[in-house]
Every structure is written in structure tokens, then in C-alpha cells.
């Protein structure tokens, strides 16, 4: 994870190819500011109304323009270097945050994909569990049926055994009967 203590450190060009996400590198800035578009923006109104749609509209142009060659419209002197520095840093901050946003979106997309796969697997497993539970139910019924059959057979065997025992005792108790032969 390139996130440490809530700060994001993007993989540089040295680590390129390690992941599927492109390496981070600040873009070059060649186009001058679009003064006509800028003069049409009422920054105070954007601020008051929280007009993020207007920000989105100017995000690209403001972040990736270069004001290095701009001159003072009054004396044609170079722009205030400290103000230029402030603008450049703000542009780099925005570019970095845009990259973090893209990185997090990609991460989120991957995680959503994994979640969908896990949910599909869970559904498959739930179906399998239901099917197996049905099988268990069937086997339990079969088991009960057989137990009943076995106990019935056992009762029959016991009844036969006691019948034979009684018969045997009766036979043993009977006085000896001669076979009727005259030779005795
Ligand atoms: Zn000036």
C-alpha cells in the first residue's frame, strides 16, 4: 500500500511495471493561462455557492497551465516570483491529489470487483448448503424408516425366539411317550 499514516506516496517511474497502475510523474506545462475563460469566472460566487461544478470545469486548465512567461499588463515586468511559486505549488498539489483520486478509484474498482466475485461465490455456496441440507433431510428420513424396520424385525425375531423357547420347555416337560413298539 502506498498510503502511510493517511499520506499517499505514489509509485515513481523506478517502480513502474510493478503494478497495473501507471507510475506517477508530474506533467509538463506549456500552455499559457486562458485569460478569457479566467476573467469570466466569479471566484467569490464559486466560493459562496460552493459551486464544485465550476471547479470541475476549470480544474484541468488551471492545474496544467504555465504562468511563467506572464508579464505585468501595466509595466510589462515579470510576474511576482513568489506568487508564481505559490501558483506552481498549488498546481502540483492539485495534480498530486488528482493522481491520488485516480489511484483510489482504481483501488475501489478492484475491490468492488472482488466483492462481486465474493458475493457470487457466497450465493453459490448458499445454494450448495441448501442442497446438502435437503440431502441430509432425505437421509435422516431414510434412517428413521430403516430403524423402524429393524426394530419391527427385531420384535418379530424375539417373538419367534420366545415361542420356540416355550415350545422347547413344553416338550421337555411332557412325559416320555413310548413309540408303541412291542420290543420295549
Ligand atoms: Zn507592473
Tell me what you see in this structure.
- Keywords: Coiled coil.
- This is Zinc finger protein DZIP1-like.
- GO terms for molecular function: zinc ion binding.
- By secondary structure, the protein is mostly helical.
- It has a domain at about 25-130.
- The protein contains four helices and two strands, in the order E-E-H-H-H-H.
- It has helices spanning about 35-40, 45-50, 50-65, 80-175; strands at about 5, 5-10.
- The protein has a two-stranded antiparallel ribbon with strand order 1-2.
- The structure holds zinc ion.
Assess the beta-strand content as a share of residues: under 5%
The proportion of residues forming helix, as a percent range, comes to: 55-70%
Look at the structure and give the mean pLDDT. 88
Derived structural class: mainly alpha
Please work out how many helical segments DSSP would assign: 4
Query: How are strands sequenced across the largest beta sheet?
Result: 1-2
Cα-atom radius of gyration: 46 Å
Total DSSP E strands = 2
Rounded to the nearest angstrom, the distance between the terminal CA atoms is 113 Å
Characterize the main sheet. 2 strands, antiparallel
Shape: rod-shaped
- Bound molecule kinds, no repeats: zinc ion
The run of helices and strands is EEHHHH
Oligomer: single chain
| Poorly predicted ranges | none
Domain Cilium assembly protein DZIP1 N-terminal: 24-144
Keywords: Coiled coil
Coiled coil: 108-142
Organism: Coturnix japonica
Amino acid at each position: 500500500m502506498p498510503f502511510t499514516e493517511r499520506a499517499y506516496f505514489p509509485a515513481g517511474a523506478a517502480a513502474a511495471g510493478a503494478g497495473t497502475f501507471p507510475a506517477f510523474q508530474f506533467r509538463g506545462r506549456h500552455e499559457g493561462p486562458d485569460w478569457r475563460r479566467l476573467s469570466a469566472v466569479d471566484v467569490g460566487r464559486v466560493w459562496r455557492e460552493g459551486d464544485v461544478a465550476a471547479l470541475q470545469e476549470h480544474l484541468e486548465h488551471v492545474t496544467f497551465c504555465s504562468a511563467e512567461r506572464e508579464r505585468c499588463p501595466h509595466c510589462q515586468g515579470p510576474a511576482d516570483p513568489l506568487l508564481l511559486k505559490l501558483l506552481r505549488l498549488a498546481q502540483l498539489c492539485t495534480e498530486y491529489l488528482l493522481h491520488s483520486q485516480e489511484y483510489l478509484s482504481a483501488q475501489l474498482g478492484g475491490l468492488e470487483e472482488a466483492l462481486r466475485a465474493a458475493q457470487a461465490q457466497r450465493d453459490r455456496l448458499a445454494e450448495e448448503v441448501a442442497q446438502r441440507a435437503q440431502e441430509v433431510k432425505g437421509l435422516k428420513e431414510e434412517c428413521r424408516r430403516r430403524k423402524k424396520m429393524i426394530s419391527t424385525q427385531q420384535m418379530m425375531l424375539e417373538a419367534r425366539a420366545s415361542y420356540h423357547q416355550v415350545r422347547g420347555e413344553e416338550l421337555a416337560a411332557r412325559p416320555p411317550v413310548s413309540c408303541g413298539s412291542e420290543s420295549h
